[in-house]
Amino acid sequence: MRRLSSRGGGKNFSLKSEEDVEELMQTLVAQIHAKLKNELNLREIFIPNSKAEARCSIFVSHNYAACPKLCIFMQPGEGMQPGMWSRTIHPKTGFQGSMIPYLKTAIQGGYGVVILNPSTNFCIVNGHRAKILHSSTPEAHVSYVWKNYVVPNAAQEISFIVHDNAGVLLKTFLSSLSGHEQQRVGGIAFIESAHQVSSGDSNALREMLREKAVNFEASTEPMFTVIGSSKARLGCTSLSVGRTSGEANNREWTVHSVQTSAFVFLQSIASGIEESLHAIRATFPNKLIVTVNRARLTGQPYNNPFAVVQCAGQKKETVGSHKHTMDPEWNQTFSFPVTSSEAKVVIVVKDRSFPMNTSLGQVVVTMSEVGLNRADRRWFALRDEKVATSHGNGEVELTLEWVHDTFVARSDSFIRGNRMPTLEAQQRPRNGTGDGENYCYLCKTTFVLHRRRYCRMCLRLVCTSCSDRLFLPGFSEPKREIEPPFVPDVSSVDDITNVPEMFQNMAAVDSPVNKKNGEGHHFDDFTYQEDGFIMRATHNPNQHH
């Protein structure tokens, strides 16, 4: 790391020094607060006022007083500042505790935002420790902000997102609300909450937690399944976000993983707890995004290194010329339809040579190592393809993200709920190596090779008829593609004499660089290989089938 301070520019930074860590935290806090005010246009309000020597501050959005729905954020722990979920700095991943991604999502979702500051209860004034008026304790701070900055406003749907020990503080605060104030509470999203229900809690509080709250926590249970033991302890439904392993085993990983699910819950809780839980489960990740950034290879300079990415039965490779280098940079992104938490993605780095490509090593990544709804960029050591314990020739930098793609989800729902195979298709024998490889996913018609295409939304095989019939939402007519050509694949053939004579002079086909449309959805070009021939269809991002 580098030191992020005015007096230490360019010097090495050590996480072992407590002084260095504290200095870095102060710099991070200043940067976060600057972004809150400059990028998110939040307003800083001082308690008790801006002229007091002993004071603390909260942050509010410009429309918080008039917005019909409000989202209140509470950070946990002593020493925490507004805009931070944690103070942890990891040696490899750095600081991951910023609230800014949550705040951006809240503002984009139409919420007014209030960030509390219950952890700041005193200041040093003239060398003495002075308590802050109206914020001498966390409970006093929350109560004061609620009565003076929340209750008088127009919001009739007030939601909370809290993390860790802030759950204890929120539970205590909720128990003090009047009946009318309880009715204004929308939804409560706990993340790894530390609170517990007790026999002394009122029935009104228990009902509120049961009907309006959900907790997310890391667990070995499958994703979005209810954890019975935690539900009994917390008094609200507790959902697993899946198992954690390796560097992902930290609370910041959980916070970022449930961001989408937390806001889906808050937006759907008005329909009831069961409907909101169903909505959460509908956000199950269904697309893996892999970016092959670069590699640091060992040995002698290589002819033309490239990477092959394999997942979900698909194989894609990087393109471009990187001749005579040991530090190739590709920066190419691929996406795969992945819904199973047991799936794996394999990245093989090879050197392009004739007549055979040379393997430099591979990386096998399980979905438990992939960040949910957030990009995780890091280096992976290459391993020998045949002997996993043996080192390969260097390392590769990857950016991995497992996300929920609405297009894919809608297509899945349409296919499952509205398309049934015809009687003729059901009675027709299926000859293929695997399910879905030899017939159209929609009409179940057996493929003739010329009619095989890939759906641009659900990533499945479809026939020409279905491809022409369906079209991208927003267009009034189908958008026809150019008929895909047949091109032989000679790049992976060991002996060129085995290639038909008419194709021996044709160059190997490189997979095209994938593109990204204006909405941020990834659109890859797909290839299908059968009997040594490649059929490739290049898609326009503005077209569907």
From TrEMBL:
C2 domain boundaries: 269-380
Statement: the UniProt record of this protein carries the keyword Zinc-finger: yes
Annotated GO MF terms: ATP binding; protein serine/threonine kinase activity; siRNA binding; zinc ion binding
Pfam families the UniProt entry points to: Arb2, C2, FYVE
Domain AGC-kinase C-terminal intervals: 470-538
GO CC annotation: nucleus
Keyword tags: ATP-binding, Kinase, Metal-binding, Nucleotide-binding, Serine/threonine-protein kinase, Transferase, Zinc, Zinc-finger
Domain of life the protein comes from: Eukaryota
PROSITE patterns: AGC_KINASE_CTER, C2
Any one GO biological process: regulatory ncRNA-mediated heterochromatin formation
Protein name (record): C2 domain-containing protein
